[in-house]
Amino acid sequence: xxxxxxxxxxxxxxxxxxxxxxxxxxxxxxxxxxxxxxxxxxxxxxxxxxxxxxxxxxxxxxxxxxxxxxxxxxxxxxxxxxxxxxxxxxxxxxxxxxxxxxxxxxxxxxxxxxxxxxxxxxxxxxxxxxxxxxxxxxxxxxxxxxxxxxxxxxxxxxxxxxxxxxxxxxxxxxxxxxxxxxxxxxxxxxxxxxxxxxxxxxxxxxxxxxxxxxxxxxxxxxxxxxxxxxxxxxxxxxxxx
Length: 241
Description:
By secondary structure, the chain is of the alpha/beta class.
């Protein structure tokens, strides 16, 4: 219930910050877990938000972060994520390894440690519509997001008997710096303008626009709240039909 705190991994990112704002607005305490340099760059954090340094790719770092806040936190949001685009034939293997470590392995680290350290609560993991349908140039990113949905479904089944819940949120193309960077990479590969790619991304939704970070955050906030007490193991799409 509001009054307790939610630990938001990747809370310095555009979606992560929006999630923190949404939770704060509904009365939840906010604790951001992120890389030290990412936290250091945040000059405008509200005074009532706390931070804890954490590298999700390092299991010991995740466990240490959770130990620091275990008496305050009853909900966790995993918003850490990176992206990469490119054909399978020319895969950048360093990028491949980074995406697997951050997007998927980090979620495993958080889920495994939280189950040992925290009391039962609600977990929300940020996946993507790219975790539901593959696309050319997206094999690496899609593989992590498909895997994340499978992880959440399995994790939810394991923690249900303790009264805990886990869901994934699958946004479409979100108006964010991460999408802009991806669009620039696709544009360079196809030798067109970034604006053309962003227009294409927007047109992929029946809304004919990009999804906002606040729209994603609203769904995450609902899934953390008691109003979603009967929802677990689900992949909730935030996009047009």
